[in-house]
């Protein structure tokens, strides 16, 4: 069985920005193997977020094929894409995007509820993940009562509690100070190394890049560098 | 579909923007309470009209000789067999009353008036307004009583009083006039001067003696349940093929038309109130959706299906409506209870009120079926109001929403 989790073949994406076409990705080939921790880096407008969004099924390429966990995304409609994201992927957003009216525990259980996981199973998995990420003491607090770092931990807990095939993180450290960023990255590294979670993070933060074992750099919509980070 | 989750989210979101949702709930409460109170007043008016029409010597069903309605006189009469009783299987009767009702002229020492002379069996008049009038003096003792009971207003016009004598002229069965003197047993104070001026009552047997015929011109029947009206009408029509058997709606077409109009008025009032409300609700929901674009974007991004997003907005709208409708209904019910304590005094508008066939005190009537209809239709309106905002929520592009 292939251990390729993501396969992008010749993908291109052009946006219209105030009627001006902007080529975000140009004929990109990209693969992610199971258990990798990859950083997608590059300056603003390099195409890193576009590539992440296309992998996550949030955007569609104008040209080329995308395959995630053996499923070709090009052929899926909106509902099928939703199901794929729900069952196979975890998302960590720049702004955490927790639901303000739910407690930390309820936020973590939320996606499992969408998946139809039983209440007992949900409770046990949520407790385990919150403990693992060191926020079990905040389980009953709402996002407004948590610090930025705590919110991001809860957001990571929400993303990994469903045991996704692929964890996608878009600028996960953007709203965090460097100490909290390091804590978060240590946690992601542990998840990657001990639980084999495949992680792709779009970032321009050198700290995040330093933790990734594979660094992919983009510029003007093309991959200009793809290397292993021996120091990680 | 994670309905429980959507319900939980919807409920929590009710408390998210407390002031805004409170104002919206207040608007729903006022609208629903207004509809409940207005419904109960219109129902009270409707019930009054119907009661007045039925009590006005009509009954729910009446048997008449053919042609009596066009030319009411003693020749348009019929005979009842001795000890006749209505036999209507499956129909529970509140009562029935045989009568002679003929035009006559009444004279006192000072004045003369045209009236309807009605021969009654007083024991059977529990089905007409006579049962509820205030009486000065006595009621007729029985069907043989030769005295009369007249309206207070007629007594005033005739400048007479209880115990005095009056002369009545009417037509006998042979077509010749009959004239007789009657002593006033009592004067009645009805709810409306029209009845007091029109009707003069005497014993039915006494009147039969005066017109020289053991006949009646009508038999009124009142049923316990309105649902039995048509069954009673059909039963009597089958038994008396040579008589006209008419319902109160046929005998009082104006009141019947007003009755139907009142139903329409309730519906129109409801539509106007809810129509205004629905735009307020829609506006609030659109604002709520637009404020939460990022949240909806996240929900879509993590895998919530478009259909679930629609359901979430609809659930939120339905919950707001549900809370508003329950509170509004409760407030409306309390207001109706308060108004029912003595009713609304319309005596200042007595003439108009009487023309509309109503009593001078309007008593609101709250029907359970009306409450259920208002509540369920309000919820339907809540769902309809949510559809457009829900469509907006579904159309949110998760990618664009998350970039905000």
Can you give me a brief rundown of this structure?
The complex is a heterodimer of chains A (232) and B (404). Chain A has 232 residues and is α/β, with parallel strands linked by helices.
Give the secondary structure arrangement, pairings included.
The complex is a heterodimer of chains A (232) and B (404).
Chain A: E1 4-17, E2 20-33, E3 37-41, H1 48-55, E4 63-68, E5 71-72, H2 78-88, E6 89-92, H3 104-115, H4 119-132, H5 148-160, E7 166-170, H6 178-195, E8 198-203, H7 206-211, E9 214-219, E10 222-228
Parallel strand pairs in A: 3-8, 3-9, 6-7, 7-8
Antiparallel strand pairs in A: 1-2, 1-4, 4-5, 9-10
Helix pairs in contact in A: 3-4, 3-5, 5-6
Chain B: H1 3-14, H2 18-55, E1 61-64, E2 93-107, E3 112-120, E4 134-137, E5 148-151, H3 152-158, E6 165-171, E7 177-189, H4 193-198, E8 199-203, H5 204-211, E9 218-223, H6 229-239, E10 244-247, H7 248-251, H8 253-291, H9 293-301, H10 306-340, E11 344-345, H11 350-355, E12 361-362, H12 368-394, H13 398-403
Parallel strand pairs in B: 3-8, 5-7
Antiparallel strand pairs in B: 1-9, 1-10, 2-3, 2-6, 2-9, 4-7, 5-8, 6-7, 11-12
Number of strand segments of chain B: 12
Strand content of chain A: 25-35%
Low-confidence stretches of chain A are none
Q: Which percent bin holds the helix content of chain A?
A: 25-40%
Encode the helix/strand succession of chain B as letters: HHEEEEEHEEHEHEHEHHHHEHEHH
Structural class of chain A: alpha/beta
Shape of chain A: globular
Rg over alpha carbons of chain A: 17 Å
Mean pLDDT of chain A: 91
State the end-to-end distance of chain A: 28 Å
Alpha-carbon distance between the two ends of chain B: 28 Å
Helix content of chain B: 40-55%
Mean pLDDT of chain B: 90
Strand content of chain B: 15-25%
**Structural class by secondary-structure content of chain B:** alpha+beta
The tally of helices of chain A reads 7
Beta-strand segment tally of chain A: 10
User: Biggest interface, and residues per chain?
Assistant: A-B, 28 and 24 residues
Largest beta-sheet characterization of chain B: 6 strands, mixed, barrel
Spatial sequence of strands, sheet with the most strands of chain A: 6-7-8-3-9-10
């Amino acid at each position: 069985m292939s251990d390729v989790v993501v396969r992008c073949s010749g993908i291109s994406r052009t946006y219209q920005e105030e009627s001006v076409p902007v080529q975000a990705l140009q004929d990109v080939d990209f693969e992610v193997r199971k258990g990798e921790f990859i950083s997608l880096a590059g300056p603003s407008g390099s195409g890193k977020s576009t590539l992440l969004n296309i992998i996550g099924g949030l955007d569609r390429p104008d040209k080329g094929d995308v395959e995630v966990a053996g499923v070709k995304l090009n052929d899926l409609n909106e509902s099928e894409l939703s199901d794929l994201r729900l069952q196979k992927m975890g998302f960590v957003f720049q702004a955490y995007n927790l639901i303000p009216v739910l407690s930390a525990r309820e936020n973590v259980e939320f996606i499992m509820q969408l998946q139809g996981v039983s209440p007992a199973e949900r409770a046990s998995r949520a407790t385990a993940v919150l403990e693992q990420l060191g926020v079990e003491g905040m389980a009953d607090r709402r996002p407004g009562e948590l610090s930025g770092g705590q919110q991001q931990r809860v957001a990571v807990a929400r993303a990994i509690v469903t045991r996704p095939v692929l964890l996608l993180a878009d600028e996960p450290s953007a709203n965090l100070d460097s100490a909290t960023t390091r804590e978060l990255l240590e946690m992601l590294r542990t998840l990657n190394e001990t639980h084999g979670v495949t992680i792709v993070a779009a970032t321009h933060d050198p700290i995040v890049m330093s933790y990734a074992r594979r660094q992919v750099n983009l510029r003007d919509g093309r991959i200009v560098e793809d290397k292993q980070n021996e120091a990680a | 579909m994670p309905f429980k989750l959507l319900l939980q989210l919807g409920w929590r979101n009710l408390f998210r923007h407390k002031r805004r949702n409170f104002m919206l709930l207040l608007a729903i409460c006022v609208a629903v309470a207004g509809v409940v109170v207005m419904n109960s007043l219109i129902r009270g008016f409707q019930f009054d009209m119907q009661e007045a029409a039925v009590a006005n010597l009509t009954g729910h069903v009446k048997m008449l000789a053919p042609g009596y309605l066009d030319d009411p006189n003693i020749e348009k009469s019929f005979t009842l067999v001795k000890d006749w009783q209505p036999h209507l299987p499956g129909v529970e009767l509140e009562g029935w009353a045989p009568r002679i009702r003929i035009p006559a002229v009444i004279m006192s020492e000072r004045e003369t008036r045209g009236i309807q002379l009605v021969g009654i069996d007083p024991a059977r008049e529990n089905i007409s307004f006579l049962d509820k009038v205030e009486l000065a003096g006595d009621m007729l003792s029985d069907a043989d009583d030769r005295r009369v009971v007249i309206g207070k207003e007629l007594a005033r016009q005739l400048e007479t009083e209880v115990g005095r004598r009056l002369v009545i002229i009417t037509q006998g069965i042979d077509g010749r006039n009959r004239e007789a003197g009657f002593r006033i047993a009592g004067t009645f104070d009805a709810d409306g001067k029209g009845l007091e001026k029109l009707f003069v009552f005497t014993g039915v047997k006494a009147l039969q003696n005066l017109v020289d015929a053991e006949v009646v011109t009508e038999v009124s029947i009142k049923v316990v349940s309105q649902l039995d009206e048509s069954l009673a009408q059909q039963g009597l029509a089958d038994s008396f093929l040579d008589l006209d058997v008419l319902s109160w709606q046929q005998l009082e077409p104006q009141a019947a038309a007003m009755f139907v109009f009142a139903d329409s008025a309730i519906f129109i009032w409801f539509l106007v109130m809810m129509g205004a409300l629905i735009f307020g609700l829609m506006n609030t929901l659109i604002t709520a959706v637009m404020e939460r674009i990022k949240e909806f974007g996240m929900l879509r991004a993590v895998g919530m299906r478009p259909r679930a997003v629609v359901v979430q907005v609809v659930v939120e709208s339905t919950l707001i409506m549900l809370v508003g409708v329950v509170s509004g209904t409760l407030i409306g019910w309390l207001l109706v209870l308060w108004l029912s304590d003595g009713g609304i005094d319309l005596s200042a508008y007595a003439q108009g009120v009487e023309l509309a066939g109503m009593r001078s005190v309007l008593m609101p009537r709250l029907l359970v079926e009306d409450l259920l209809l208002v509540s369920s239709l309000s919820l339907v309106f809540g769902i309809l109001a949510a559809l457009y905002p829900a469509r907006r929520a579904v159309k949110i592009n998760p990618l664009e929403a998350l970039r905000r």
